[in-house]
Design a protein that fits this description.
Helix content is 41%, strand content 20%. Strand 9 (247-250), helix 10 and strand 10 form a beta-alpha-beta unit. It has 2 domains: 6-21 and 29-164 and 300-326, Rossmann fold (3-Layer(aba) Sandwich); 166-299 and 330-353, 3-Layer(aba) Sandwich (Rossmann fold), CATH 3.40.50.2300. The strands form 2 sheets. The chain has a 7-stranded parallel beta sheet, sandwiched between helices. Strands 8-7-9-10-11-13 form a 6-stranded mixed beta sheet, with helices on both faces. The protein is of the alpha/beta class.
Length: 355
């Protein structure tokens, strides 16, 4: 993620989740953190009358983030643009730097401005009920990214959770890998070894797609990854045992950068990498025809815009489905600049645009 790094999204939750056994890719449709069915984000709209009612009420909003990244910046901009359209003033933006105590302090500071809506991603869902208590008790409308605070009830304690169509991201990655290896060959599967529904479903969607739709391919190595700093060691071990491996799937961009480094150090220009979430080093390698074949990216800007619309409906007392899933895209060598624009709603880094 640069979402964006899923290192940023997923590992802020690891303190509250136990390690899991390898996922066997049985997920068929994206589900929310509590098993909710996914509702397409683009179905969340306001009528002209509802927009007029929101504008007339002069509501305010605050964006309370767990960190600062390409992902959170893009989601913030999506929310700001949508709030502005609705006449909702954004009165505060904060970044907790992965510190749950700071996030609690941020919310207490923000609440002095009495925002009507808080759009947020919690540092730690397990302790988040206490973190958000002052806002919750004040009746502030709450909208979350990925999952709500532990124990919160949809429609009572929060309006909605906004995330990605996770299984579809996995399928896109599987399809991209199959194409990259010409429909046949040996694949290594490096999955996130923790109980986190975002990565589990993405990883599972990839694996199931290879099993179901890439009949000439074989997954010859499976390795769980709990600590992203071990990714290079894992890649070295996989390639040492399977020197003819044609492709490596890596659960997200940060460890994929380490896998790329391992392949380069080994002089391996053959093995293809497919991963999730935009990364400048990976995109640059892909641009120059290196190991990286494809990156599946979410639409972070749309996540923010969707959250703003959901929050506005919540202010009007309208019930919103509990889990809203935003679409995603496959970024390859042919569409890197457009991928950045569509995912993050900004121009790609200068290195990507340079000839």
């Amino acid at each position: 993620m640069s979402k964006q790094s899923i290192a940023l999204r997923a590992f802020c939750f690891l303190a509250s989740f136990a390690l899991a056994t390898p996922l066997h890719a049985e997920l068929k449709a994206t589900k929310g953190p509590n098993g909710e069915d996914a509702t397409p984000a683009d179905s969340i709209t306001l009528t002209p009358e509802q927009e007029a009612a929101i504008r007339a009420a002069h509501y305010t909003a605050a964006l309370v983030w767990h960190e600062s990244s390409d992902y959170s910046k893009a989601a913030s901009q999506g929310a700001i643009d949508e709030f502005t359209k609705l006449g909702i003033e954004v009165v505060a933006q904060t970044d907790a730097g992965f510190d749950a105590a700071k996030q609690k302090s941020d919310i207490e500071t923000v609440m002095a401005k009495k925002p009507s809506i808080i759009f947020s991603q919690a540092v730690d869902p397990a302790t988040a009920p206490e973190t958000y208590k002052i806002a919750h008790d004040a009746g502030t409308t709450l909208v979350f990214v990925d999952q709500p605070p532990k124990g919160y009830v949809h429609g009572v304690d929060y309006v909605a959770v906004v995330s990605d169509d996770l299984s579809k991201m996995g399928k896109r990655a599987g399809d991209a890998m199959c194409a990259a290896i010409g429909g046949k060959g040996k694949i290594a599967y490096v999955y996130h070894d923790a109980d986190f529904f975002v990565t589990n479903q993405r990883d599972g969607g990839f694996k199931q797609t290879i099993i179901d739709d890439c009949k000439g391919a074989e997954i010859v190595a499976e390795q769980g990854l709990a600590d992203p700093t071990r990714a290079e060691d894992i890649a070295n071990a996989i390639v040492a045992k399977n020197p003819d491996v044609d492709g490596i799937y890596v659960t997200w961009a940060s460890p994929a950068e380490s896998v790329l480094a391992a392949l380069r150090n080994a002089g391996n220009s053959k093995t293809k990498i497919v991963t999730m979430d935009l990364s400048e080093p990976l995109a640059l390698d892909m641009k120059h025809g290196g190991n990286v074949a494809a990156i599946v990216a979410d639409q972070a800007y749309s996540i923010g815009a969707t959250a703003a619309r959901a929050g506005a409906l919540g202010l009007l007392g309208k019930k919103v489905p509990p889990f809203l899933a935003v679409d995603n895209l496959t970024v390859t060598k042919d569409n890197i600049p457009d991928g950045y624009r569509q995912s993050l709603h900004r121009e790609p880094p200068a290195s990507i645009l340079a000839n």
